[in-house]
Amino acid sequence: EAFLDVGGCQTLFGKSEDIARAIKIRIKKEIGLTCSVGVAPNKFLAKIASEMRKPDGLVVVKEDEKESFLVGLPVSKMWGVGKVTERKLQQMGLHTIGELRRLSLFQLKNIFGKLGARIYQLCRGIDDRVIISKRETKSISSETTFLHDISPGELLERTLQDLSVEVASRLNNENLWARSIQLKIRFADFKTIT
């Protein structure tokens, strides 16, 4: 998952939607994976938009469409609304973001405290968080999924070695050291061992 601010790139690369489409094509071509993309005025709306047409969708929400985009969505789609908050809202008869929008800032703050102010903004499509371009690397990983189930043997050993070399190279490029190493294996029945 990544968030990109392409506001300053449109002169060079075209509209945001065109940039998103080009990124999707490049990811498919270079990595062989599909991805879903949400193009929107802020992170909150982009996240919801990207989840709407998985695994290979592109959803665009324009500034003047943000309230109509949100109106029918369940309150559970909002950041900060977990199961407890969702249950509380549903007990109040508020099931959709549009219904939640009927409450005033005062009412939401009175019910939810600081979270109420955040809910007030999000249900109106307002999210002023900036996109941070570089964060401290906490982990480096590499994985692969085989097209068919395989048994232990040369292919598995070679793949593990290739993945290890890739991770080591990335550690070296970022001048980092590993404190721990983790191996994850998923079997045909989707049982996972770490």
From TrEMBL:
InterPro entries noted in UniProt: DNA/RNA_pol_sf, DNA_pol_Y-fam_lit_finger_sf, DNA_pol_Y-fam_little_finger, DNA_polymerase-Y, DNApol_IV, IMS_HHH_1, Rev_trsase/Diguanyl_cyclase, UmuC
Subcellular location: Cytoplasm
SUPFAM superfamilies xrefs: DNA/RNA polymerases, Lesion bypass DNA polymerase (Y-family), little finger domain
EC nos: 2.7.7.7
Enzymatic class: transferase
Domain UmuC: 1-82
Catalyses which reaction(s): DNA(n) + a 2'-deoxyribonucleoside 5'-triphosphate = DNA(n+1) + diphosphate
GO process terms (BP): DNA repair; DNA replication; error-prone translesion synthesis; SOS response
Gene Ontology MF annotations: damaged DNA binding; DNA-directed DNA polymerase activity; metal ion binding
Keyword field contains Disulfide bond: no
Family, per entry: Belongs to the DNA polymerase type-Y family.
Protein name: DNA-directed DNA polymerase
